[in-house]
Amino acid sequence: MATDFQTVVRSIGDLPPMPAVATKVLRMLQSPETNFSQLGEAISSDPAVSARLLKVANSAFFSLKRQVKTLDHAIAIVGERTLRSLVLAASLEGMNKSYGLLEKLLWEDSIGCAIGARFLARRFNTADPEEAFLAGLFRHLGKIIMNYSDPEGYRALAVAVYGGEGSFNDIEGRFFPYAHAVVGAAVLNKWNFSDDLIQCTLHHEDLAIEREGNEVQFRLAATVALADIICARIGIGAGEPDESLIVEDSKAVEALALDKGQVDDSIEEIEEIFNENRDSFLS
Prior knowledge:
- The structure is a single chain.
- The chain is mostly helical.
- It has two domains: 17-94, no CATH class; 99-282, Hypothetical protein af1432, CATH 1.10.3210.
- Helices cover 67% and strands 0% of the residues.
- The chain has 16 helices and no strands.
- It has helices at 2-12, 20-29, 36-44, 47-57, 71-78, 80-93, 101-124, 129-138, 141-149, 151-162, 168-171, 180-190, 195-202, 215-234, 251-256, 260-282.
- Helix 7 (101-124) packs across helix 16 (260-282) and helix 14 crosses helix 16.
- The radius of gyration is 18 Å and the shape is globular.
- The termini are far apart.
């Protein structure tokens, strides 16, 4: 599979690099000698990431009683694993060459699924919440890469989808040589992310992961798949809700053994959490 991923990456052409601040922070988090001040200094080199981290630390997402005013305090409050998630989220947002309506919807789609996957993982103990956040964030990385490398082709694809010519998955092959799931997985592989995140990105819709011997990976993918369909049902990242979707009939619900009441409650709560935190992540 690694050779296939290399072929995919070579075919992309204009591939964005891993954002510098994210690379630096991830490297620093691997060292037990790194302290909050050093992390704060590294993050402060990117004003956009710094501002986003402070905004999220003060949001309903963490429900803190005191206002967080400094990066050091924000890092101490959210913890290293959540910091990793937030830095990568803020960095991913800055990966666009331009920022119009299409890019706004792509970002809303990414952060909405990240929030939803984190909620589901915590509520039903289906996966590690921070890993679920990242898996939700990256599950459509391939779409962001497509838009980055060939914005005209991606816009043509979006127009065709919104024009009713077919679903994104059904017609993306008319515009790009590889499916967005394959592209996203290939880029995560190049960036040296974990195999769990790579396989989740690759199989976030088909859940084609051998469950026996890979239970953690399978449940992570199922968690993201459920967050994905809930976001589509609500209309996060799509402009309007898709009321034709019957979430409780999805493969993800079956895989996680949830009942209709649990699904209905999750849809309502994810929508509420997303709306409460929309401005912190999206403005």
